[in-house]
Amino acid sequence: MSEQNPIPQHVAIIMDGNGRWAELRGKERYEGHAAGVEPVRAALRAAVRRGVKFLTLYAFSTENWGRPEQEVEALMELFCQSVVRETPELVRQGVRVEMIGDRSRFSQKVRGYLGQVEQETAAGETLTLILALNYSSRSEIVRAVRRIAGQVARGGLLPEEIGEETLGRALDTAAYPDPDLIVRTSGECRLSNFLLWQASYAELYFPEVLWPDFTEDEFDRALEEYARRDRRFGLVR
Ligand code: IPE
Ligand code: IPE
Ligand code: MG
Fold this sequence. Notes:
Undecaprenyl pyrophosphate synthetase; binds 3-methylbut-3-enyl trihydrogen diphosphate; 8 helices
């Protein structure tokens, strides 16, 4: 629609291709993950520069626990290191860090670091960075349904009062608008259990670039592609 805002309010990224990037260079998979930190900085800078208000990054799926123990441990270590190292710059840029997913499965150490970055960036007003950690859409929906069922069981809610907003409010993403644009790098064209409910009317974009090679220009290209899309939401012009 011509009146559509050319800048998406909420961009969500499935950061994929770290393993393949490493393999292509004869490196270990964890080196690919380490190389995926700079592109996070680039995406953030670009999002701030372009006036995006919410940036969600899929960093670790519930299914990713099934990877080799060594790789999972390297990722946990990387999360801890990165949040500590990046916090001052996040504060400087006015970025508030929040999280979706089930944090209870992380070690106390990891939860401590995550809680710390949330606290220290809580005053940020430029952009909200939402990290999806131990996130899967189906488990998020199941947790939300349990919450709603609890309300019904306690007599606080009638089944016929349950609407789309009831579920939306019970999800981890309750405080955020739905993503306008979902980007998945590495050429894979699937959502892999990411924001299934929230993606109902999102524009999807699947660039070939592997995540460690993602740059500010790539982010701009995604926004250019978004600006060309005609979002109709089931209506006619
Ligand atoms: C994405 O890169 C990072 C995580 C899932 C944590 P991958 O590790 O999935 O990279 P590929 O898909 O194997 O190349
Ligand atoms: C999705 O990527 C999860 C993250 C990027 C964190 P995967 O690499 O785990 O997904 P599949 O296995 O290709 O579907
Ligand atoms: Mg992958």
